[in-house]
Design a protein that fits this description.
Distance between the termini: 9 Å
Domain Xylose isomerase-like TIM barrel: 38-294
Radius of gyration: 18 Å
Bound molecules: ligand LX7YND4F, cobalt (II) ion
Shape: globular
Structural class: alpha/beta
GO biological process, one term: inositol catabolic process
Keywords: Cobalt, Lyase, Manganese
Strand content: 15-25%
CATH class: Alpha Beta
Number of helices: 11
Family: Belongs to the IolE/MocC family.
Oligomer: single chain
Enzyme class: lyase
Length: 298
């Protein structure tokens, strides 16, 4: 059994409004989004572009609905820009999250990333870092890890489609090159399956270093289409490659089992970006909440 005082359930606003493609769900307001999260039974959220930037206003709106902030995405450019630029932006982001009570900071390297490029095939053109870039990334992430620790927070690295840290080998390399007490791992079921990795193997290997979990499922027929038609990451999302856990090809039972046996503590964040015009966000949030209850008891 998971300890429900140690494992919390959140959901990402990206199913209501997609910050990478603001035309998806532009009609959905911040208030509707967080009200529906609460209505579906979630007590946590990550942060979207429509969220108020003022922490007092944001806190009040979230408190009214019994929701807290689990974390928020940070784009690092350690391989392509001077470290100071990433550092300055990271400190602002860290301080915002600290005020909101978050304990982990989601970081993904965006140097050379193709994840935001509408027409670049995600399986053909992903970046591959040079040794020099790996070194910059590893040392930079350790510095960000130290900055996070100043506030008793942790950097959790987000492996991601279309970036230099996507595959098993790349995750292994990053984990080997960084200090385990400074750089932790985010486990995103959807990205690993999309990429063709084995989520169970990765989870077993790094479970002690995993401090944040993104739960999303994959529609197998859409994944095939992405490969056959050489679609980009954003086109894949629009087509519906991602869905909520339990609605696709991933077997979550062994994953929950490994997390449970290893006494995982932290957030499970349902993060299933798809077109809200095709997949009603409240309906899918309820579906996800029900599935998690069934499989974990949480
Ligand atoms: O954590 C995430 C943040 C999103 O912006 C991203 O594109 C999504 O797929 C994801 O996993
Ligand atoms: Co994610």
């Amino acid at each position: 059994m998971f300890d429900s005082s140690k494992v919390k359930l959140g959901i990402a606003p990206i199913a209501w409004t997609n910050d990478d493609m603001p035309e998806l769900g532009s009609e959905n307001t911040f208030e509707q989004c967080i009200s529906e999260m609460a209505l579906a039974g979630f007590t946590g959220s990550e942060v979207g572009n429509k969220y108020p930037k003022d922490t007092k206003i944001l806190k009040k709106a979230l408190d009214l609905r019994g929701i807290s902030i689990a974390s928020a995405w940070f784009s690092a450019f350690l391989t392509t820009k001077p470290f100071e630029e990433t550092k300055e932006a990271f400190i602002k982001h860290r301080d915002f999250l600290y005020e909101m009570g978050a304990k982990v900071i989601v970081v993904a390297e965006q140097g050379h990333s193709i994840q935001g490029m509408m027409d670049v095939p995600v399986f053909d053109k992903k970046p591959v870092f040079t040794e020099e870039e790996w070194e910059k990334l590893a040392r930079g992430l350790e510095e960000l890890g130290k900055l996070a620790l100043e506030k008793d927070m942790k950097v959790v690295y987000h492996h991601h489609m279309g970036t230099g840290v996507q595959t098993t080998e790349e995750i292994d390399k990053l984990m080997e090159m960084t200090n385990e007490n400074l750089v932790y791992l985010l486990f995103d079921t959807g990205h690993l399956t999309f990429s063709g990795e084995n989520p169970e193997e990765i989870l077993k290997k790094y479970v002690k270093r995993i401090k944040h979990v993104h739960l999303k499922d994959i529609r197998q027929d859409v994944l095939k289409k992405v490969k056959d038609e050489k679609l980009s990451f954003l086109q894949a999302v629009k087509e519906g490659v991602f869905t909520v856990p339990g609605d696709g090809m991933i077997n979550f039972e062994p994953l929950f089992k490994i997390l449970e046996e290893n006494k995982y503590e932290g957030w499970f964040v349902v993060e299933a970006e798809q077109d809200p015009a095709k997949a009603n966000p409240l309906e899918y949030a309820i579906k996800a909440r029900k599935y998690i209850k069934e499989k974990t008891g949480l």
